[in-house]
């Protein structure tokens, strides 16, 4: 085995042959020249009485100077009783495990598992948007086992600083749920999101006042005599008779309503109710009469309450 050192010029001028061949550098390090023209750094050495072969990568991606530094590191490991090949395999395995245990990977698994329980396409889009825009850019590359409460707090504080009060708490709940999944699957042992609510601003909840029961009769009398926008009057009458929320009513479509059966019914889609199944609303005689009258107001439109300026959209 030659002991003279290789030069960059020798490496560059080495031509491929019919069979692969080696150009030695010293201390077991050599350049393997393949018939294809590729040039690969290798090193032969002995560890615990066995011959080993170490790969360092291709030239010129790994330069002559770089490979000699890698050789020095290997020699140091061997002096410490550590096999460089075994250590390299362990490091590759650690990288693989870290990738599998990254917050991004775990959150994607969590989302895939939970997706079927989300009540609507809108809810699904909201969750995925929250993950991809607000959470993963901050935590995605970190293994779940090393994420600290301060990391999670920093993530949700970015939202709090933008004045997104309710979004802050929803985001924290999602992060906490992801860590519960990570604990259940053996990726980490603690939930760094669990105890953070006291570190966040409290949300001021403003409740809309309800109409006192004793004033309901007067309200209905005034509604009966109301001469303003017809859709406003009809929608308020139907809210009173069906107990639907304003949004559920405004977005209503004629295709959801059956007025011709012996038991008239309104089938409100699950997606609009934020529910797992459709919501069935039995229609009273008064409701049927009002809806028949309404039908004459929205001819050739599937929307119950088409907008005044844009009939393709419901009233707001």
Automatic annotation (TrEMBL):
Stretches assigned to the Tyr recombinase domain: 206-316
GO biological process, one term: DNA recombination
SUPFAM superfamilies according to UniProt: DNA breaking-rejoining enzymes (SSF56349)
InterPro entries in UniProt: CB, DNA_brk_join_enz, Integrase-like_cat_sf, Integrase_catalytic, Integrase_DNA-bd_sf, Integrase_DNA_bind_dom, Integrase_recombinase_N, Phage_int_M
Start and end residues of each Core-binding (CB) domain: 101-183
Family the UniProt entry places it in: Belongs to the 'phage' integrase family.
Protein's UniProt name: Tyr recombinase domain-containing protein
